[in-house]
Each structure stands twice: as C-alpha cells, then as structure tokens.
Amino acid sequence: MQDWRAALEEYYSRYLDSALVLAIVNDSDDSNTAREILEALSIESQCDSHEEHWDNLRRDEQELLNLKTLDEEINKIDEEDFTWELKDSSLELDPDVYNFLRSMFSDLSAARVQLVQAKCQNDLVRSSDELLNHRAIQESEQIETAADALITSNIGHRSRQRKKKTKKATNSRKPLSKFQSNTEEVNEDPILKPSLSVWENNRLLIEKLTSILNIPSSQINHEFYKNSSAWPITIRNLIHRHQPLSNITNNELMKYQEEATQLAKDTGLSLKICTDVLICSNDYKNALWILCLIKETQHNEMGNIKLSSQTAKSNSSTQTKTCLNDQSSKLVEDDEALSAEDCNRLAEEYLELRNMQYSNSAKEYRRSKSNHLFGGSAMYHAQLGREYHEKALKYRSLAMRSLAHSGTSHSLDLHGATVREAKTIVRERVAAWWAKEADTSPNSIRPFVIVTGRGNHSIGLEARLLPAIVRLLQQDHWRFDAEHGQITVYGINRHSKLNSNA
C-alpha cells in the first residue's frame, strides 16, 4: 500500500507543496481518488502561477514607467550649489560630498557640516551617519526641554518647603569591584519588568539574547518552549551549542579565567557556566546580564535549579525527536563511497525527518494563534524540514549516480531506479558501450544486457521500467530483444534509422 503513495508523492511534489501532497495521499483510501485530487490541484496551481506571472509583468512595467517619469521630473529640478561656502574654509573638503551633505542636512549650520565631513575624512557614509545622530540628539534635547518646562510650571508651593536633613549611612571606604559596580547598573534596570505581561517580558528577553549571542530569534523561541519556558535550561542549551565555544583555544581561555572566577564567586553559579557565558557574549556587562537573568528566573520560576551537565530529561516525544536528529547528524560523511542502496536508505531517513519537522511546524503554527511566540518555532521547524528535503534529494541523486556506475561494461541492473532515472542511466551506459563496440565486426559484438525486473514491486504489480526502456530504445533506433524482465541490445537498427530519415 505504501508503493503507490510514495509514487504519487514523488510525482506531484514537483508541482505542489510536499506537505500538502503527503496529507492528501495519507487521507485517501485508494490511488485513483488521490490522483484525481492531486491532478486537479496541480492544474489549478499551474494556471494560478501563469496568471500571477502575467500580473507581475504588468506591475513591473507600470513601476518602471513610474520610475522613468519620476526621474524625468527630478532631473528637471536644478540642484542648489553650496560649494561657494568652501571658499573661505581652511579645511580640505570634497566639494561633491559637501554639496550632497549640505543639501540633505539644510537645517544644520554650514560650519557643523564642514567639521563633520573633515572629521570623517570626506567619507560620505560616515558623515551622513554622524549628522543623522547629531540631528536625533538635537530633537531629543528639544523634547526634554519642553517636558521640563511643563513640569516646572506645575510645581506647587509645598515643593519649596524646607526639608529636614537626614544623615546618610556611612559606607565603607572599600573600593567597589568591577562586578559590584556593574551589578548596581544592571539592578537599576530590572530584567523582568512587573508592569509588562509575561509575553512582553519574554519577547524583550529574546530580543536582548539575540543581540548578545548573535543567534536567530526563531532558534531561541524554539529552545525556550521546548524546555517548558525555563530560561536557565534554555540559556544553558544555547550556550552549549554556540559556535565560539568550539573554536576557543587554551590561551584564549586563560584570558577569561579571572573575570569568570569573580562572576562565579558573586553570583553563586558554577565556574563553567560563567566561563561559557563570558566567552559567548564576549563582553563583561552582557555576560553579567545573562547570569543575572539565570539567577532571577532560577529563583522566581524554577526554584533551586542547578546548571550541571545532566539536565532533566524531556518527555518521550522530545526524546524521539532528539534521537532522530542525532541519528541524522551521525550519517556517513563520505558520500562518494556509499552504494546505491545506502543512498536510498539515507534518502528515506531524511524524508521521514522532513515529514516529522513539517508536522511539528503545523502544530506550532496552530499554537501560535493563541501565543505569537510559537510563530518563530513554527518557522524553525519548517526550515529544518526544507533542509532535510534538500538532503534527501541529494542522496537520491547520489543513488542514481552510483547505480549508473554499477554492473559491468556490458550489463546494467536498474532495480531501485525510477523511470526518469532509468532513462538517463540507460542512455549514458548504452552510448558508452557502443562507443567501444562500434568498430568491431558485427559477429564479434558483445551484447549489452539491461535488467529491468518484472514489476513485482510496482503499483498494481505492473512493470513500468520495461515498457519505458523499450520505448526509449525504439526512439533511439537500437536493435534489441526484450523478454522476462531483461533487454538485450545488439547494436543500431540501421533500417529503422534510414526509414525515419526518408
């Protein structure tokens, strides 16, 4: 029952989404019903693609016409020349760059533009960034000044009453360590803001971790919800798979020991997790922020969680997914040394992994309707499914290549090949065989034997390879005999070739 489903999936996946084809094939009881549905959908998708193509062409032509019209209007406008302001300037400035900056930032003074351009050594991009920052600072200062004016005008009489002096607690004169001073800065801005919802807090934390660790937010989303929304375990797993940890040398590791020791002493976390966080963040303050997040969420959400090498086991479904992913990572690296059977087996395993990831993506997408954070997890699973699909195609291609080089110079076994693959292989092998035998006498030619099988593994137990190869050899004007799942090629059928030319 699986053979016709696999054949339909392989054929219609070229025109439709593979997940949709898989769902229709699995829901159908017989091949005819599934084929009718898929054929109708494929025809409809092809018609839609053609209409969409023509719509895109019309839209592109209209946009091009609009751009041409806009360019003509812009070219008619005379640009103002500011280069006369450089006559009395002692700075060596590029007139073209200055003219562009002056026209773009007309609200700024000429002296300010000249100083910024000289500071940036006539670099247009750097100068533009500097002037944009200056404009933003000016606007923020104006907003703060207006706000202060409103607040000052509303101050009451009681605010000017004399306050009693209170003695401040005398602090010890012991100098603050680097960690203590940075801890105060982190504590001023709480990691989990009580005024925000849980969803907003998690979104802000994911954005912060993305900027620090340079990890895609979809991957952090997936890891966070895979570990039951526990930040300590999530951060540990992300740090464990982070790229810099695998490239660190012993000399570089020694540089982080002093700061990591201080972090471990003051946070109470293990030296290993402090060192790993410091290496991955590559900044003391960022590492401190991540460790404070671990400490705070460990206390508030998870209790006394210890970040050790042995974490709590996930549920049985998570274990199954992990085992399959580990199995895919341990697949044979030497692709060229694999046989056709091994390549087909690996292709089937990758297809199973692809289907599992597409199923997980669909589940996460349905969950994202109630919680938007699951949208990133759905995208992550869909990306994994596409990667597994590409690997399955790769090993399928390797299987065809291995099959093409199998057998002897005068024989070929096509078991395990599809009709399309078999046609390509037969043409190559028969041409190579005839290149060697063409110069010999007709009585000395050694025939070429092609084994196609009797169709015992085909849908409906009907042979597919044999009729397809027979039609191919007839079209290419070969002389052959076909019987009992085997084709024997003797040479070129010259009479058939002459008749076709006539």
Characterize the structure shown.
Residues 411-459 form the Smr domain. Keywords: Nucleus. Residues 157-171 have a biased composition (Basic residues). Residues 150-184 are annotated as: Disordered. The structure is a single chain. With 502 residues, the chain is mainly α. It has four domains: 2-76; 179-302, no CATH class; 329-404; 411-501, Ribosomal Protein S8, Chain: A, domain 1 (2-Layer Sandwich), CATH 3.30.1370. It has helices at 2-12, 18-27, 31-76, 95-104, 110-119, 124-153, 178-188, 198-213, 217-226, 231-240, 243-247, 250-255, 257-267, 271-281, 284-302, 316-329, 340-368, 374-404, 419-437, 465-475, 494-501; strands at 411-413, 448-451, 478-483, 486-492. A hairpin with a 2-residue loop joins strand 3 and strand 4 (486-492). Helix 1 runs parallel beside helix 3 (31-76), helix 5 (110-119) packs across helix 6 and helix 17 (340-368) runs antiparallel to helix 18 (374-404). The protein is extended and about 100 Å long. The two termini are 48 Å apart.
Q: SSE order, as H and E?
A: HHHHHHHHHHHHHHHHHHEHEHEEH
Separation of the first and last Cα atoms:
48 Å
Number of DSSP helical runs: 21
Number of strands: 4
Spatially, the strands of the biggest sheet line up as 1-2-4-3
Query: How much helical structure, as a percent, in the residues?
Result: 55-70%
Integer-rounded radius of gyration: 36 Å
Strand content: under 5%
Extract low-pLDDT stretches: 152-159, 170-181, 302-333
Q: Note the overall shape.
A: extended
Average of the residue pLDDT scores: 74
Structural class: mainly alpha
Number of domains: 4
